[in-house]
Amino acid sequence: MYKFICLFVFIPFTGLAQHYKLSGSLNGNQKPVSYATVQVQNVADTSKKQNTFSNNDGIFIFENLPAGDYRLKVTIVGFKIYNQQIKLHIDLQLPEITLAQNPNELNEVVVMAKRPTITRKIDRIDFNVENTILSSSSAWEIVKRAPGVQSGGDQLAVRGSRSIIVTINDKKVTLSGDELKAFLESTAGNDIKSVEVITNPPASYEASGNAVINIKMKANHTPGYKGSIGAGYTQGIYAKGNMNTSQYYKTGKLAIFGSYNIGRGIYYNEIKEVTNYAGQQQTWMDILRRKNYRDAEHTYRLNFDYAIDSLNTISAGTDGYIAKNNHALYSVPTTIYQSGAFQSAFDTQNTRRTPNTNVNINLGYDHRFSVTEKLSLAADYTNYQNTIGQDVRTSYQVVDPHNSRFVTDTRQHIRLFSAQADYSKDSKVISVQVGAKFSRVQADNFLDFRRDTNSGLVIDPALSNTFLYRESVSAGYISVNKDWGTWSFKAGLRGEYTDINSSSISPVQINRQGYFNLFPTVFLQHKVSPDNQLGLSYGKRITRPPYNFLNPSRSYFSPNSYLMGDANLKPALTDQYSLLYTYKSRYNAELYFINEQHPTIQLPFQDNATNTLIQNVTNIPGSRYYGIDLSTNLQSADWWSLDINPGAAILISSFPLSGGGFIRRNVFSINGTADNQLTLNKKAGFTANVSFNFNTAGLQGPATVSGMSSLNIGAKKKLFSDLGEVSLSVNDIYRGQKMKVTSDYADQHNYFTYYGDTQNFRISFKYNLGNAGLKGKEQKQKTDEQKRL
Questions:
Q1: C-alpha span between 20 and 450 (Å, rounded)
Q2: Tell me, what's the pLDDT at 605?
Q3: Cα–Cα distance between 20 and 86 in angstroms, integer?
Q4: What is the model's pLDDT at position 153?
Q5: What's the mean pLDDT in 115-143?
């Protein structure tokens, strides 16, 4: 506020001083040139000169320059020195300056600064996939292959925890579960620069989630046109395909980006459940085969950025996901054995309609007070509508043959709004970030449950429900960082107040909560010697339950299987400590400890009285993780690069029994990835990739999770003078991505296996339009609290 008061007080006197502003931007090799030294020298008095540096966007600014003639000089390693004469008598914004490469210096820099595919930083791992064979696959496949990420049952985990947030350019995507997977599968990898696995997010990030998986989209700052068209075909158990296009155009002040993808196909997964009811000496076995028909899935983005002047930029955009024709068929044959001998069987057919739409609208404004000082304002609105209609018919055989039927209609409408302001200033003494944010969630859920009777379909009020959920979060943060000598320090504090108000008709539940939490973060890094570096970090996080987990309605899949949420779920609080050692900027070792209180899990629970298997959403007392992560990049030859990321962890979980007492589970888990990037023929643009990943064990509360592994190969060939490319990949070659979850304690004796059609091959083609040398436009960031949909 003081800055603005001073601005208005002194405006009337600025004309007397005759001082002006000079700004411009630097471009080289078709991308912004950052941290170049820019100097202006007065021609009449050469002793009067000022220096500054270009920022990440290549922008430089000089303020309060007296009128006169100046010599502008730009220097940076890898480019020739640039000189220009300037006459300054008004505020002047120079046309974009293109720096010429210095071949001798540039060749040396390329050799010395060759970056590995994986870069390890104090709080994150950066997995660069730009121009690799992985870029021809979907965002889902890329994220699954990122170091430290485990996938199983179509869910993602980091360091054994599923309390994670998926973001695009640091903003949460608006979907979760099956919708999140579908969205990422329909997002083309060609638009992705890298994936960041952020194990300890700093204070500027929302406090939700134990870890963040951030998808960084390609950025562009160069005027011109660039476009592409592409198509892909994937064959697993069933076929699926997609077509996509992206278009980018930038003039001097206006940048427009748009992308569109349409996909269709059959997505299959299979769950085999075995439940032993010891009291009845019965074993129930069923196989749930789920065929999801995605007849026309549309994913789109449209973004506008307009530079009012060198200091002010406004942006607007929309993106969304439309799948109005999605439907599915679930087949569930069940066989019952008594003391090992066949007793009876029944078969359930579940016909489903699953249309849903998701629309996001965002507005933004950036103001630069100077190269080192910036204010950003943003507002976002999301409208998400999801409908699930199912017709469940069951045919009972052998014992008491008869048929039964019920029909459910579930409608979910979620509206999210958020507004935030972020201010940052860098100085020679210290760098500061402060910000504030407000978000509001309105979620309406309606369930109609009808049973088939002699009188037709009749509504069952006990199983029908209306669930209304309201949540608002008010947050503020401050973050400071300081570098001195061989030390780097960063610390932050974030405060969030959460207000919740929800109501359910059947069962009758009213939940009102209000709580405030503080979330400190600390990072300390020390360069012990040119080859050795140590890092220490601590962070506190919160994981609020997904909105659908808070709905206490029963969601039936068959007469003897349903999912049940809990409106009174608690948020989980997590403390995370880590110690990082880096040798020669290539070899990394990180020790970590994670203590998670009241995590939310989805746990299989067998009701022995009714022979029903319930997917019960509940809090457990806590989980702890002790582990080590290792990583390195080996450049064995000019044509062969190998990234290796092994790790090991001890996972401990405690769980209360309904009859009293606790169960304590612990497993020792080993995980790792090995990713080979091969350049088979550089001149012909022929590259290949071979990767292997594995994880030996896991926990879901008292349930144990089996190990999984995957072997994948791929190849990519440039065509038509590098304007086109064709890619082929084969994934999960030996079907190692099957998982088994076992609950064997007290009176719980069940397990299920899951397979998600991960064994497949994919062929894709892409053709570039316009100036293919331009990098893709940066995607507008999404809102910061939407993962819980």
A1: 74
A2: 87
A3: 13
A4: 58
A5: 71
* H or E element at residue 183: helix 177-185
- pLDDT at residue 774 is higher than 60: no
Extract the tokens encoding 442. 């309105």
This prediction has a pTM of 0.76
Residue range 16-102 forms a domain whose CATH class is mainly beta
Cβ atoms of 214 and 199 within 8 Å: the answer is: no
Contacts 24+ apart (CB under 8 A), 245-250: 246/188, 246/190, 246/191, 246/776, 248/220, 248/774, 248/776, 248/777, 249/224, 249/225, 250/220, 250/221, 250/222, 250/223, 250/224, 250/777
Residue by residue, DSSP assigns 12-44 as GGHHHHTEEEEEEEEEETTEE--S-EEEEEESS
Query: Which amino acid is it at 297?
Result: E
Structure tokens at 34: 């950052």
Count of all residues that appear for the chain in the document:
789
Q: Helix (H, G, I), strand (E, B), or coil: what is residue 331?
A: strand
Residues 6+ apart with CB under 8 A from 269: 154, 290, 754, 755, 756, 757
Q: What is the pLDDT of residue 427?
A: 84
Mean pLDDT for the chain overall = 85
Q: What is residue 262's predicted lDDT score, i.e. its pLDDT?
A: 92
Token representation of residue 602 = 């989805």
Amino acid making up residue 502: S
Where in 530-560 does DSSP place strands (E)?
532-543, 554-558
Amino acid 391 reads D
Mean pLDDT of the region 94-108:
67
Give Cβ neighbours of residue 197 (< 8 Å, ≥ 6 apart): 124, 125, 127, 146, 147, 148, 149, 158, 211, 212, 213, 214
pLDDT for the residue numbered 633: 81
pLDDT at 668 over 90: yes
**CA pair distance 456, 394, nearest whole angstrom:** 16
Per-residue pLDDT averaged across 492-503, rounded?
95
CATH topology of domain 118-770: Maltoporin; Chain A (2.40.170)
CA distance 538 to 639: 39
pLDDT given at position 786: 45
- Give the start-to-end residue ranges of the domains of the chain: 16-102, 118-770
- Strand ranges inside 109-179, DSSP E: 118-120, 124-128, 149-152, 155-158, 164-168, 171-172
Q: Are 317 and 302 in contact (CB under 8 A)?
A: yes
What is the Cα–Cα distance from 675 to 661, expressed in whole angstroms? Answer: 45
